[in-house]
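User: Fold both of these, please.

Assistant: Here is the first one.
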Amino acid sequence: MKFTLALWLLLLSLFSYSTELRVHELRNYGALHYLEFYMMEKDGVPVKAAFKALQIPKCPFNMRLVGGMSAETMNELREFYRQNYPDRLDAYLKSPAGKTGSTIKPLESVIPEALASTTLLREINEELKDRKCALGDISFEKFVPSVEDGFWVSDIYIKVVKYAE
């Protein structure tokens, strides 16, 4: 059985173009569960496979996504800004190098919305929905906007809440 699951996870990972996940830890802090994944450009497994391999705790719990996003996810973030906040993006792009602080703040203020729009978080939300959970508050450690390389967000923190039917 373990060999079959490992083979299935390997096959699924061959067809993933989004950010992949690798389980880091699942533990309790008091009564609240805490689930941590590494985000991987490759060498992880797709979201569906990661959730299938785990017994996800009951809601509510906290989730942390650590590490690097795939180029696809970074490009999705950049496209989100191009489509939804072009004025904020233009202000950032036109600011002189080294003087971008005040123009990054308006971009940072909508990062939770931008992250929720990515394939990565939509897939996580679908897996959570199957378990009667949903994405709650989303926060992050660091935001690095780059038009050439995509928009990078590290250490994403998600409060997972009960799904309101």
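And the second sequence with its predicted structure:
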Amino acid sequence: MNQLKNLGSICLLLILPIFIYSEVFISIDKPNATKGEVVSVQIKAKGNDIEFPSIKTITSSQVVGTSSSTSTSIVNTSITTTKTQTYQFVATKSGDIGPFDIKIDGKVLQTKILHIYVSKPKPSTKRDDFFVLLKTSKTDLFVGEDMVVDIVFKYKEEKDVRRIQIQEFIQNNFVKYTQIL
């Protein structure tokens, strides 16, 4: 009879960690990004009491935005909370992301290390069938100073462009002049 109790205790110890667990995951939406592109890093943690670190920079780039979400699931009186924290940054150079320390239920868990490869943007070539060119009236500005931006859409003459449609941009303090030649 004691052997059955010992066997039951061992089985319980092996199965219990499956139901009481803490997990942390990290993912990146663009592991291969172009310089200047906005990239999102998502950290997801499962547990009851979850604390994320304060992340100000990623690969020497300033974090430009954060968002978070929380979901709670209840299964047979077992409550599990999943929190997701998303960080956006502008990719400027290749490098490692993480590891980050996440405190879950009093334990500190680390995310794995992710790598991001940042490439230079490819310049448009004259052989492109279509391309957009931005021309500005000034190169240096003060805060609140006006600037004119011309958006030039170019295409090869042999391409049969029958109609160009420009969607109107309505925003406070913006003036729109449309001229289609």
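Confidence is low (pLDDT under 50) at residues 11-20.
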